[in-house]
Structures
1.
Amino acid sequence: MSTPNNNKRPSSSKPTGDRKKSTTTPKPAMAKRSQNRKPTVKKESPNVSKPLKTDDIRLNKYIANSGMCSRRDADIYIQSGNVKVNGIVVTEMGYRVKLGEVVNFDGALITPEKKEYFVLNKPKNFTTSLDEVEHRNVQELLKGASKSYMEPIGRMDKNTTGLLVFTNDTDMIRKFGLPNQKSPKIYQVTLDKNLKFEDLEKIQAGVTLDDHKLHVEEISYIEKEPKNEVGIKLKTPNVKVVRAIFEKYDYTVIKVDRVAFAGLTKKNLARGIYRPLTEQEIINLKNC
Protein backbone atom coordinates (compact mmCIF):
# COMPACT_ATOMS: atom_id res chain seq x y z
CA MET A 1 0.00 0.00 0.00
CA SER A 2 1.36 3.41 -0.93
CA THR A 3 1.81 5.99 1.78
CA PRO A 4 -0.19 9.22 1.25
CA ASN A 5 1.90 12.34 0.67
CA ASN A 6 1.29 14.54 3.73
CA ASN A 7 3.43 17.32 2.30
CA LYS A 8 0.77 18.33 -0.29
CA ARG A 9 -1.30 21.32 0.71
CA PRO A 10 -5.10 20.66 0.64
CA SER A 11 -7.00 22.57 -2.01
CA SER A 12 -9.42 25.31 -1.00
CA SER A 13 -13.02 24.13 -0.64
CA LYS A 14 -14.31 27.30 -2.30
CA PRO A 15 -13.73 28.06 -5.98
CA THR A 16 -11.73 31.16 -6.63
CA GLY A 17 -14.49 32.63 -8.71
CA ASP A 18 -16.86 32.85 -5.73
CA ARG A 19 -14.52 35.08 -3.70
CA LYS A 20 -15.65 38.68 -3.34
CA LYS A 21 -13.25 41.40 -4.16
CA SER A 22 -11.85 43.09 -1.06
CA THR A 23 -12.88 46.71 -0.56
CA THR A 24 -9.73 47.46 1.45
CA THR A 25 -6.43 48.35 -0.13
CA PRO A 26 -4.14 45.36 0.07
CA LYS A 27 -0.92 45.79 2.10
CA PRO A 28 2.23 45.80 0.09
CA ALA A 29 4.18 42.62 0.27
CA MET A 30 7.03 42.68 2.76
CA ALA A 31 10.31 42.97 1.01
CA LYS A 32 12.69 40.13 1.54
CA ARG A 33 15.58 40.95 3.83
CA SER A 34 18.85 41.20 2.06
CA GLN A 35 21.17 38.37 2.84
CA ASN A 36 24.03 40.85 3.01
CA ARG A 37 22.27 43.17 5.42
CA LYS A 38 24.42 44.04 8.42
CA PRO A 39 22.99 43.35 11.87
CA THR A 40 21.77 46.37 13.78
CA VAL A 41 24.07 47.36 16.63
CA LYS A 42 22.14 48.57 19.64
CA LYS A 43 23.73 51.60 21.19
CA GLU A 44 24.28 51.40 24.91
CA SER A 45 22.38 53.78 27.10
CA PRO A 46 24.64 56.37 28.70
CA ASN A 47 23.20 55.35 32.08
CA VAL A 48 24.28 51.70 31.69
CA SER A 49 27.79 50.91 32.86
CA LYS A 50 30.15 49.23 30.47
CA PRO A 51 31.60 45.83 31.37
CA LEU A 52 34.30 46.11 34.01
CA LYS A 53 37.91 45.90 33.01
CA THR A 54 40.29 43.74 34.93
CA ASP A 55 42.06 46.71 36.50
CA ASP A 56 38.98 48.57 37.74
CA ILE A 57 36.13 47.93 40.13
CA ARG A 58 32.72 49.42 40.87
CA LEU A 59 32.92 52.05 43.56
CA ASN A 60 30.27 50.43 45.75
CA LYS A 61 32.12 47.10 45.63
CA TYR A 62 35.39 48.90 46.39
CA ILE A 63 33.78 50.34 49.52
CA ALA A 64 32.22 47.01 50.52
CA ASN A 65 35.54 45.19 50.07
CA SER A 66 37.15 47.69 52.42
CA GLY A 67 34.81 46.44 55.15
CA MET A 68 33.06 49.79 55.67
CA CYS A 69 29.53 48.68 54.78
CA SER A 70 27.46 46.64 52.31
CA ARG A 71 27.17 47.53 48.61
CA ARG A 72 23.60 48.71 49.12
CA ASP A 73 24.60 51.03 51.95
CA ALA A 74 27.60 52.19 49.89
CA ASP A 75 25.20 53.35 47.17
CA ILE A 76 23.40 55.51 49.74
CA TYR A 77 26.67 57.09 50.85
CA ILE A 78 27.66 57.72 47.22
CA GLN A 79 24.31 59.36 46.36
CA SER A 80 24.58 61.50 49.49
CA GLY A 81 27.93 62.91 48.36
CA ASN A 82 29.94 61.28 51.15
CA VAL A 83 32.45 59.57 48.86
CA LYS A 84 35.41 61.19 47.13
CA VAL A 85 37.72 59.75 44.48
CA ASN A 86 41.04 61.55 44.10
CA GLY A 87 39.59 64.44 46.10
CA ILE A 88 36.46 64.84 43.93
CA VAL A 89 32.97 64.02 45.18
CA VAL A 90 31.38 61.19 43.18
CA THR A 91 27.60 60.64 43.18
CA GLU A 92 27.29 58.60 39.97
CA MET A 93 25.91 55.10 40.35
CA GLY A 94 28.08 52.47 38.67
CA TYR A 95 31.17 54.67 38.84
CA ARG A 96 34.38 52.67 38.49
CA VAL A 97 37.72 53.21 40.16
CA LYS A 98 41.12 51.74 39.46
CA LEU A 99 43.25 50.13 42.12
CA GLY A 100 45.65 52.74 43.41
CA GLU A 101 43.22 55.64 43.22
CA VAL A 102 42.58 57.55 46.44
CA VAL A 103 39.10 56.88 47.81
CA ASN A 104 37.70 58.66 50.87
CA PHE A 105 34.60 57.25 52.50
CA ASP A 106 32.81 59.58 54.89
CA GLY A 107 36.13 61.32 55.60
CA ALA A 108 38.24 58.16 56.01
CA LEU A 109 40.80 56.83 53.53
CA ILE A 110 39.93 53.25 52.55
CA THR A 111 41.51 50.36 50.68
CA PRO A 112 39.60 47.85 48.53
CA GLU A 113 40.74 44.75 50.36
CA LYS A 114 38.22 43.09 52.59
CA LYS A 115 39.52 43.11 56.15
CA GLU A 116 40.31 39.59 57.36
CA TYR A 117 41.39 38.33 60.77
CA PHE A 118 42.92 35.02 61.81
CA VAL A 119 44.34 33.61 65.02
CA LEU A 120 47.15 31.05 65.04
CA ASN A 121 48.41 28.85 67.85
CA LYS A 122 52.06 29.32 66.99
CA PRO A 123 54.43 26.39 67.55
CA LYS A 124 58.09 26.61 68.45
CA ASN A 125 60.86 27.23 65.87
CA PHE A 126 58.81 29.69 63.77
CA THR A 127 59.48 33.42 63.82
CA THR A 128 57.59 36.53 62.75
CA SER A 129 60.78 38.29 61.61
CA LEU A 130 61.44 38.44 57.88
CA ASP A 131 65.12 39.12 58.57
CA GLU A 132 65.81 35.80 60.30
CA VAL A 133 66.22 33.77 57.13
CA GLU A 134 67.82 30.93 59.04
CA HIS A 135 64.48 30.22 60.77
CA ARG A 136 61.11 29.26 59.33
CA ASN A 137 58.55 32.06 59.10
CA VAL A 138 55.05 31.93 60.55
CA GLN A 139 53.65 32.80 57.11
CA GLU A 140 54.20 29.16 56.17
CA LEU A 141 51.58 28.16 58.72
CA LEU A 142 49.01 30.58 57.31
CA LYS A 143 49.44 29.50 53.70
CA GLY A 144 46.12 29.32 51.86
CA ALA A 145 44.20 31.28 54.50
CA SER A 146 43.67 34.32 52.28
CA LYS A 147 44.59 35.82 48.92
CA SER A 148 45.66 38.97 50.77
CA TYR A 149 48.91 39.28 52.70
CA MET A 150 48.23 38.66 56.37
CA GLU A 151 50.55 40.46 58.76
CA PRO A 152 51.02 39.35 62.39
CA ILE A 153 50.06 41.74 65.17
CA GLY A 154 53.24 42.08 67.17
CA ARG A 155 56.37 39.98 67.08
CA MET A 156 57.23 36.52 68.32
CA ASP A 157 60.65 34.92 68.35
CA LYS A 158 61.16 31.28 67.45
CA ASN A 159 61.09 30.13 71.10
CA THR A 160 57.80 31.81 72.04
CA THR A 161 54.58 29.89 71.38
CA GLY A 162 50.88 30.57 71.61
CA LEU A 163 48.32 33.01 70.27
CA LEU A 164 49.26 35.20 67.34
CA VAL A 165 46.71 37.31 65.43
CA PHE A 166 47.06 37.98 61.69
CA THR A 167 45.23 40.59 59.64
CA ASN A 168 45.42 42.91 56.63
CA ASP A 169 43.81 45.65 58.74
CA THR A 170 46.71 48.11 58.99
CA ASP A 171 44.82 50.33 61.46
CA MET A 172 44.46 47.45 63.89
CA ILE A 173 48.12 46.45 63.49
CA ARG A 174 49.13 50.04 64.21
CA LYS A 175 46.79 50.26 67.22
CA PHE A 176 48.17 47.16 68.93
CA GLY A 177 51.73 48.37 68.33
CA LEU A 178 51.28 51.56 70.33
CA PRO A 179 53.13 51.75 73.68
CA ASN A 180 49.95 52.80 75.52
CA GLN A 181 47.93 49.84 74.20
CA LYS A 182 45.88 48.53 77.13
CA SER A 183 44.63 45.13 75.97
CA PRO A 184 45.62 42.29 78.33
CA LYS A 185 47.90 39.41 77.34
CA ILE A 186 48.35 36.31 79.50
CA TYR A 187 51.49 34.15 79.34
CA GLN A 188 52.33 30.82 80.89
CA VAL A 189 56.02 30.86 81.73
CA THR A 190 58.24 27.87 82.51
CA LEU A 191 61.35 28.68 84.57
CA ASP A 192 64.54 26.72 85.23
CA LYS A 193 63.69 26.61 88.95
CA ASN A 194 60.80 27.30 91.31
CA LEU A 195 59.81 30.94 91.60
CA LYS A 196 60.28 32.14 95.17
CA PHE A 197 57.19 33.66 96.73
CA GLU A 198 59.06 36.83 97.69
CA ASP A 199 60.13 37.26 94.05
CA LEU A 200 56.55 36.73 92.94
CA GLU A 201 55.47 39.54 95.29
CA LYS A 202 58.21 41.84 93.98
CA ILE A 203 57.12 41.25 90.40
CA GLN A 204 53.47 41.85 91.34
CA ALA A 205 54.47 45.24 92.78
CA GLY A 206 55.96 46.27 89.42
CA VAL A 207 59.32 45.87 87.71
CA THR A 208 61.72 48.56 86.51
CA LEU A 209 63.31 47.74 83.16
CA ASP A 210 65.62 50.21 81.40
CA ASP A 211 64.54 52.98 83.80
CA HIS A 212 60.86 52.36 82.99
CA LYS A 213 58.40 51.05 85.59
CA LEU A 214 56.39 48.17 84.17
CA HIS A 215 53.00 47.49 85.70
CA VAL A 216 52.15 43.80 86.12
CA GLU A 217 48.41 43.16 86.10
CA GLU A 218 48.62 39.79 87.77
CA ILE A 219 51.05 36.98 88.49
CA SER A 220 50.40 33.61 90.09
CA TYR A 221 51.51 30.00 90.23
CA ILE A 222 49.74 27.63 87.84
CA GLU A 223 47.26 25.50 89.76
CA LYS A 224 48.31 21.85 90.21
CA GLU A 225 51.67 22.53 88.54
CA PRO A 226 55.21 22.85 89.93
CA LYS A 227 56.26 26.27 91.27
CA ASN A 228 58.37 26.88 88.17
CA GLU A 229 55.14 27.18 86.13
CA VAL A 230 53.86 30.74 86.39
CA GLY A 231 51.04 32.73 84.83
CA ILE A 232 51.57 36.45 84.23
CA LYS A 233 49.18 39.07 82.86
CA LEU A 234 50.56 42.16 81.13
CA LYS A 235 49.36 44.91 78.81
CA THR A 236 52.63 45.53 77.00
CA PRO A 237 52.72 44.34 73.35
CA ASN A 238 56.39 43.37 73.66
CA VAL A 239 56.82 39.64 74.29
CA LYS A 240 60.53 40.09 75.12
CA VAL A 241 59.52 41.95 78.27
CA VAL A 242 58.18 38.68 79.72
CA ARG A 243 61.62 37.08 79.63
CA ALA A 244 63.29 40.26 80.89
CA ILE A 245 61.09 40.33 84.01
CA PHE A 246 62.22 36.93 85.26
CA GLU A 247 65.81 37.33 84.12
CA LYS A 248 66.01 40.43 86.34
CA TYR A 249 65.56 38.10 89.33
CA ASP A 250 68.11 35.54 88.09
CA TYR A 251 65.71 33.04 86.56
CA THR A 252 66.25 31.44 83.17
CA VAL A 253 63.11 31.28 81.08
CA ILE A 254 62.66 27.87 79.48
CA LYS A 255 59.36 28.51 77.70
CA VAL A 256 56.88 31.34 77.10
CA ASP A 257 53.40 30.46 75.87
CA ARG A 258 50.81 33.15 75.18
CA VAL A 259 47.48 31.69 76.26
CA ALA A 260 45.30 34.81 75.87
CA PHE A 261 45.43 37.93 73.71
CA ALA A 262 42.95 40.81 74.05
CA GLY A 263 40.16 38.44 75.11
CA LEU A 264 41.05 35.70 72.61
CA THR A 265 42.05 32.27 73.90
CA LYS A 266 43.53 29.20 72.26
CA LYS A 267 40.75 26.92 73.46
CA ASN A 268 40.21 24.04 71.01
CA LEU A 269 42.96 25.39 68.77
CA ALA A 270 45.76 22.87 68.31
CA ARG A 271 49.39 23.93 67.99
CA GLY A 272 50.22 25.04 64.44
CA ILE A 273 46.54 25.50 63.49
CA TYR A 274 44.77 28.76 62.61
CA ARG A 275 41.14 29.81 62.34
CA PRO A 276 39.26 32.96 61.26
CA LEU A 277 37.91 35.18 63.99
CA THR A 278 34.18 35.38 64.55
CA GLU A 279 32.33 38.65 63.99
CA GLN A 280 32.02 39.16 67.74
CA GLU A 281 35.73 38.55 68.27
CA ILE A 282 36.54 41.14 65.60
CA ILE A 283 34.26 43.67 67.30
CA ASN A 284 35.94 42.95 70.65
CA LEU A 285 39.39 43.49 69.14
CA LYS A 286 38.34 46.81 67.62
CA ASN A 287 36.99 47.93 70.97
CA CYS A 288 40.17 47.08 72.90
2.
Amino acid sequence: MSNSWIYMAGPLFTKAEVNFNQNLADTLTENGYRIYLPQQECAGVKAPEEQFAICIRGIDKARIILAILDGTDADSGTCFEMGYAHAKNIPIVGLRTDFRGSGEHLGINLMLSNSCAHLLLTALNPPPSSDRVTYLQPGEDFIPPLLQVLRRYAA
Protein backbone atom coordinates (compact mmCIF):
# COMPACT_ATOMS: atom_id res chain seq x y z
CA MET A 1 0.00 0.00 0.00
CA SER A 2 1.21 3.55 -0.68
CA ASN A 3 1.93 6.22 1.94
CA SER A 4 -1.79 6.89 2.26
CA TRP A 5 -4.06 5.13 4.70
CA ILE A 6 -7.49 3.68 5.27
CA TYR A 7 -9.69 6.28 6.93
CA MET A 8 -12.12 4.58 9.32
CA ALA A 9 -15.44 6.41 9.39
CA GLY A 10 -17.90 5.27 12.02
CA PRO A 11 -19.73 6.12 15.19
CA LEU A 12 -17.51 6.69 18.22
CA PHE A 13 -19.83 7.78 20.98
CA THR A 14 -20.23 4.67 23.15
CA LYS A 15 -17.66 2.45 24.80
CA ALA A 16 -18.80 -0.41 22.55
CA GLU A 17 -18.31 1.70 19.39
CA VAL A 18 -14.89 2.96 20.49
CA ASN A 19 -13.79 -0.60 21.33
CA PHE A 20 -15.12 -1.99 18.03
CA ASN A 21 -13.28 0.72 16.07
CA GLN A 22 -10.03 0.20 17.98
CA ASN A 23 -10.15 -3.60 17.65
CA LEU A 24 -10.84 -3.37 13.92
CA ALA A 25 -8.08 -0.78 13.45
CA ASP A 26 -5.65 -3.01 15.38
CA THR A 27 -6.58 -6.04 13.25
CA LEU A 28 -6.13 -4.11 10.01
CA THR A 29 -2.79 -2.74 11.24
CA GLU A 30 -1.65 -6.27 12.06
CA ASN A 31 -2.50 -7.14 8.44
CA GLY A 32 -0.22 -4.42 7.06
CA TYR A 33 -2.59 -1.48 6.63
CA ARG A 34 -2.07 2.07 7.85
CA ILE A 35 -5.23 3.22 9.61
CA TYR A 36 -6.42 6.75 10.25
CA LEU A 37 -8.79 6.46 13.21
CA PRO A 38 -10.50 9.77 14.06
CA GLN A 39 -11.05 8.78 17.71
CA GLN A 40 -7.25 8.58 18.06
CA GLU A 41 -6.39 11.56 15.87
CA CYS A 42 -8.83 13.83 17.70
CA ALA A 43 -8.10 12.57 21.22
CA GLY A 44 -7.76 15.53 23.55
CA VAL A 45 -8.89 18.05 20.93
CA LYS A 46 -11.79 20.09 22.32
CA ALA A 47 -12.51 22.62 19.57
CA PRO A 48 -15.08 21.31 17.08
CA GLU A 49 -13.49 23.30 14.25
CA GLU A 50 -10.15 21.65 14.91
CA GLN A 51 -11.72 18.18 15.10
CA PHE A 52 -13.40 18.84 11.74
CA ALA A 53 -10.10 19.98 10.16
CA ILE A 54 -8.26 16.91 11.49
CA CYS A 55 -10.87 14.59 9.99
CA ILE A 56 -10.93 16.40 6.63
CA ARG A 57 -7.13 16.15 6.40
CA GLY A 58 -7.42 12.43 7.14
CA ILE A 59 -9.95 11.91 4.37
CA ASP A 60 -7.99 14.04 1.91
CA LYS A 61 -4.95 11.77 2.27
CA ALA A 62 -6.89 8.49 2.39
CA ARG A 63 -6.59 5.77 -0.22
CA ILE A 64 -9.79 4.09 0.98
CA ILE A 65 -12.64 4.97 3.32
CA LEU A 66 -13.91 2.14 5.50
CA ALA A 67 -17.38 3.20 6.64
CA ILE A 68 -19.05 1.41 9.55
CA LEU A 69 -22.78 1.44 8.79
CA ASP A 70 -24.21 -0.27 11.89
CA GLY A 71 -27.25 0.93 13.81
CA THR A 72 -30.83 1.66 12.92
CA ASP A 73 -29.50 4.51 10.78
CA ALA A 74 -25.90 5.23 9.81
CA ASP A 75 -24.06 7.78 11.96
CA SER A 76 -24.50 11.32 10.58
CA GLY A 77 -20.77 12.09 10.73
CA THR A 78 -20.03 8.88 8.82
CA CYS A 79 -22.61 9.91 6.20
CA PHE A 80 -20.86 13.27 5.76
CA GLU A 81 -17.44 11.61 5.53
CA MET A 82 -18.78 9.24 2.87
CA GLY A 83 -20.27 12.06 0.82
CA TYR A 84 -17.08 14.10 1.03
CA ALA A 85 -14.95 11.09 0.03
CA HIS A 86 -17.32 10.16 -2.80
CA ALA A 87 -17.07 13.70 -4.19
CA LYS A 88 -13.27 13.32 -4.17
CA ASN A 89 -13.45 9.90 -5.90
CA ILE A 90 -11.99 8.05 -2.92
CA PRO A 91 -13.27 4.45 -2.91
CA ILE A 92 -15.59 3.63 -0.02
CA VAL A 93 -16.01 0.19 1.49
CA GLY A 94 -19.15 -0.04 3.60
CA LEU A 95 -19.33 -2.53 6.47
CA ARG A 96 -22.60 -3.40 8.20
CA THR A 97 -22.40 -6.07 10.91
CA ASP A 98 -25.96 -5.23 12.04
CA PHE A 99 -28.50 -7.52 10.38
CA ARG A 100 -31.42 -5.14 10.93
CA GLY A 101 -32.34 -3.50 7.64
CA SER A 102 -33.03 0.21 7.92
CA GLY A 103 -33.11 1.67 4.44
CA GLU A 104 -34.64 1.44 1.04
CA HIS A 105 -31.71 -0.19 -0.79
CA LEU A 106 -29.91 -3.31 0.44
CA GLY A 107 -31.06 -2.49 3.98
CA ILE A 108 -29.39 0.93 4.09
CA ASN A 109 -30.02 4.40 2.68
CA LEU A 110 -29.71 4.34 -1.12
CA MET A 111 -27.34 7.32 -1.13
CA LEU A 112 -24.96 5.36 1.09
CA SER A 113 -25.29 2.05 -0.74
CA ASN A 114 -24.65 3.68 -4.11
CA SER A 115 -21.65 5.69 -2.93
CA CYS A 116 -19.83 2.51 -1.87
CA ALA A 117 -17.47 0.76 -4.25
CA HIS A 118 -18.16 -2.37 -2.21
CA LEU A 119 -20.48 -3.31 0.65
CA LEU A 120 -20.14 -6.05 3.24
CA LEU A 121 -23.65 -6.54 4.60
CA THR A 122 -24.95 -8.85 7.31
CA ALA A 123 -28.37 -10.33 6.59
CA LEU A 124 -30.55 -13.04 8.12
CA ASN A 125 -31.41 -14.53 4.70
CA PRO A 126 -28.70 -13.17 2.42
CA PRO A 127 -29.02 -13.50 -1.34
CA PRO A 128 -25.92 -14.55 -3.28
CA SER A 129 -23.05 -12.05 -3.16
CA SER A 130 -22.15 -9.99 -6.23
CA ASP A 131 -19.19 -7.96 -7.51
CA ARG A 132 -20.24 -5.00 -5.34
CA VAL A 133 -21.85 -6.72 -2.35
CA THR A 134 -20.57 -9.43 -0.03
CA TYR A 135 -23.24 -10.86 2.24
CA LEU A 136 -22.43 -12.20 5.70
CA GLN A 137 -24.42 -14.30 8.13
CA PRO A 138 -25.08 -12.82 11.60
CA GLY A 139 -22.08 -13.59 13.81
CA GLU A 140 -19.86 -14.51 10.85
CA ASP A 141 -16.24 -13.34 11.04
CA PHE A 142 -16.17 -10.40 8.64
CA ILE A 143 -12.38 -9.93 8.76
CA PRO A 144 -11.39 -12.42 5.99
CA PRO A 145 -13.85 -11.03 3.41
CA LEU A 146 -13.04 -7.46 4.46
CA LEU A 147 -9.32 -8.06 3.92
CA GLN A 148 -10.08 -9.55 0.51
CA VAL A 149 -12.10 -6.47 -0.50
CA LEU A 150 -9.50 -4.03 0.86
CA ARG A 151 -6.76 -5.73 -1.17
CA ARG A 152 -8.75 -4.88 -4.30
CA TYR A 153 -8.70 -1.16 -3.55
CA ALA A 154 -5.32 -0.83 -1.83
CA ALA A 155 -3.29 -1.64 -4.92
